[in-house]
Amino acid sequence: MRGCREACAAFCLLRVLVTGQASATEPEKPALSYEQAEDRAGFIALVRKARRGDTESQWQVGQTYARIGEPARALPMLQAASVANHPRAAALLGSLHEEGRGTAKSREEAMRWYRLAADRGEPQAMAALGRLLLQDRGPEARESAWQWLRQAARLDDRDGQYHLGRLLAQPGVAHDDTQAYQLFVKAAGQGHVGAQVAAAIHLLAGRGVARDKKAAADWLQQAAKAQDPVAHYLLARTREGAADSDRDAVRNSYRIAATAGHREAQFALGAVLAKSRVEPERKEAVGWFAKAHEAGHRAATNRLGEIYRDGFVVLQQPDKARGYFKQAAEDGDANAMYNLAQMLNEGSGGPRDTDQALKWYTRSAEQGHQEAMAVVDGLLNSSVKTSSLSLKGFWH
Predict the structure, then answer these.
(1) Are 153 and 145 in contact, with CB atoms under 8 Å apart?
(2) Closest among 302, 320, 304, 322 to 312, alpha carbons compared
(3) Cα–Cα distances in Å, from 146 out to 131, 207, 208?
């Protein structure tokens, strides 16, 4: 409790130092201590030096404004320092323009300031410039992006290492999983969350490194501390099948990722909850399947069809089930193809259509669906059934 009060007081003090006023919603604070008064006086002196044209003071004041959520105040200070060739100020100014903090978003302005900083040797700006250049088409932009990212990585910039690793992990002439993994580990060791997840993925798949589930879990746990949804999803996946699996930990990780909008986690959480004997949890499962379906998860769409077909904690609605199956089948889900074929063959949820049923049975079978393969084989091995179901011409 004491730590929270001190943190709050420190933030309010910094706001007073910068803006000269406390938040209107904050209660009146006690008089400043001697040390606080000195800090305030020191910041005021720094602002005065910045206004007189001192470049380093402009950078420090601009950085402070940006850090406490006053980017509009930061902009003129950072711009003045950048014009005077302060590379870190130019890099931060590029970031504000890219993110639209204190000003309108502008990729062009962001790249202009990143380039100025990169030309003066700022590694963070090199990495950011390389990342943005990758969005441009054409060999020249891509080659320039490679050069900037390599320079940033050589200067031990974690963003440069991460994005260069991603390039090397992609299929192509420069593909090198081993080097990509090494770059991810370097960036991960500096606290880069994306690199921690990427290193874990390589360890789980054995890409460029021997498979090591424990080492992967260590990286994922670090990334999960930053509430990264992908890390939580992968942690839950790795834990779910373990012999000593902690059910609550698995659910918690899936839930964090699902709440953040990770559609695979939404589907996985729905699947876990659907197995519960507790009705409220089974009902919650339907909600997560629905969210995953809305995000385009075709297996979740099929599960919704099964739920409405079987009356799983909802009323049976065959027509609704058939609609979900059709959508998932058209998106390429083999289970949905089989389910749709069954409903079409039986005339459940709509008119009976044996021609369409055969079409979907066959497509499902072509994807390796065992039950669909059995149906198709049975039809082909029976001349009577083949004749009665009008297979003539179907294979075209």
Answers:
(1) no
(2) 304
(3) 9, 22, 20
Report the alpha-carbon distance of residue 225 to residue 193 in Å, rounded.
9
pTM reported for the whole predicted model: 0.81
* 152 within a domain of the structure (yes/no): no
What is the per-residue pLDDT across 259-314, written as a single tens digit (0 to 9) for each? 999 999 999 999 999 999 999 999 999 999 999 999 999 999 999 999 999 999 99
Domain range holding 62?
33-120
For position 344, which CATH number holds? 1.25.40.10
Structure tokens at 23: 């938040």
Q: Residue 247 burial (CB < 10 Å; 0-12/13-18/19+)? A: exposed
Tens-digit pLDDT profile for residues 167-214: 999 998 789 999 999 999 999 999 999 999 999 999 999 999 999 999
Asked if residue 317 is part of any domain, the answer here is: yes
Question: For residue 128, which of 175, 171, 162 has the smallest C-alpha distance?
Answer: 162
Total domains in the chain come to 2
Is 353 among the domain residues?
yes
Q: What's the average model confidence in pLDDT over 140-162?
A: 96
Q: Which two tokens stand for residue 113?
A: 């300031």
Q: What whole-number percentage of the chain has pLDDT above 90? A: 79
Cα–Cα distance for residue pair 11/67, rounded to 1 Å: 11
The residue from 71, 89, 120 where one domain ends is: 120
CA dist., res. 90 & res. 135, Å (int): 21
SS3 category, 176: coil
Nearest CA to 92 out of 72, 121, 63, 135 is that of 63
- Whether 159 has a pLDDT exceeding 60, the answer reads yes
Last residue of a domain, one of 91, 120, 149: 120
Does residue 8 lie in a domain region? no
What is d(CA 74, CA 90) in angstroms, rounded to the nearest whole number?
12
